[in-house]
Amino acid sequence: MTRETQQSRPDPAHTRAAPAAAALGSAFQENAAAIYRFIYAKVGNRAAAEDLTGDVFLKATRWLAEDRSADSIRSWLYTTARSAIADYWHDQSRLPSIPLEDFDAVLFCGTDGPEEVRRTRERALRILAALPEREGEVLRLRFLHGYTAAEIGRVLGLTPGNVRILQMRALRRAAREPGLAGDNGAERSDDG
Question: Considering only CA atoms, which of 74, 77, 97 is closest in space to residue 85?
Answer without folding.
Answer: 77
